[in-house]
Amino acid sequence: MRLCLFSSTPDVTDLGFVVKVLTGNPEELAQRSVEWGYDGIEFMPNPDDVMNPLEMETALKRAGAVMPVVNSGRMYLQGMALLHADGEIRRRSVEAYKRMVDFAAHFGARVGLGVARGQAISVSNPEETERITHDVFHELAEYAEKAGAVIMLEPADPGATNYINTVGEAMAWVDRIGSPAFTVMLDTYELAVSEPSIEEGIRAARGCATHIHLYDPSRWPPGVLPEGDRLDWKHIARLLREEKFCGSGSVVLPPEGDPHPAARQAACYLRRLFAN
């Protein structure tokens, strides 16, 4: 598994993102992630101003880092939602997401699609929500196919969105869209909060997931909290091996304290865990 750190530009701090991430310019992000024991970064670009990929490419090459995943989570915090009831906002959001697809395609990377979708358009009219969801997802999948990127639909807990909360629901949309550029990803917070069990959630992906967000429900990175206060990471690693999971995993920074030692500890812990 390629291990990555959640990362973004320094302005993400003012947005109140749900987890703490590594911040800096591309050079700093790439270099620090490698120095702290990771293979690279999962990067959250500013959807209003996606950087030139050549700038990131240069930084990654100098550090010997990778960027297998682009995170679209800033969209919702910046007033966008792919499934917004307002057609103008929806169109603006789709265009912003396409810019991130283009950015990811330069690296042969994948793009997460989680809270960027927003809330269900109409709880009282699920048919309308379903129709618009299909149209948006289908348009984005077609765009990603042509661009050479892959979209990963991320189930999210009800505290983040009221729509597509379980892996089974996400997989139903993957089946419906039916595109090689539209698949699913996993998130351990969602697995712990929204699924009947972590095992059922992982198995519901049917071996299609190639990326997973790795952190405890308390928003701490794996292997840092005392044993009784964290997820059963050995069990999670075993389940992923059984499902022949092969891809990447991203780790958050601790919500408090010096991030460096905790990030290194999490990297060492996960490398030992997935080496067995």
Q: How would you sum up this structure, described in words?
A:
By secondary structure, the protein is α/β, with parallel strands linked by helices. The chain has helices at residues 26-35, 53-63, 74-77, 87-105, 126-147, 167-177, 188-194, 198-204, 233-242, 259-275; strands spanning 2-8, 22-23, 40-44, 66-70, 110-113, 150-153, 182-184, 186-187, 211-214, 248-251. Helix 5 links the parallel strand 5 and strand 6 (150-153). Strands 1, 2, 3, 4, 5, 6, 7, 8, 9 and 10 form a ten-stranded parallel β-sheet that branches.
In short:
It contains 10 helices and 10 strands. The protein is of the alpha/beta class.
What key attributes describe this structure?
276 residues; TIM Barrel; ten-stranded parallel β-sheet
N-to-C span: 12 Å
The ordered string of helix (H) and strand (E) elements is EEHEHEHHEHEHEEHHEHEH
Largest sheet: 10 strands, parallel
Average pLDDT figure: 96
Strand content: 5-15%
Cα radius of gyration in angstroms: 18 Å
Q: Kindly give the count of domains.
A: 1
Give the helix proportion (percent range). Answer: 40-55%
Please write out the topology.
Layout: E1 2-8, E2 22-23, H1 26-35, E3 40-44, H2 53-63, E4 66-70, H3 74-77, H4 87-105, E5 110-113, H5 126-147, E6 150-153, H6 167-177, E7 182-184, E8 186-187, H7 188-194, H8 198-204, E9 211-214, H9 233-242, E10 248-251, H10 259-275
Parallel strand pairs: 1-2, 1-3, 1-10, 3-4, 4-5, 5-6, 6-7, 8-9, 9-10
Helix pairs in contact: 1-2, 4-5
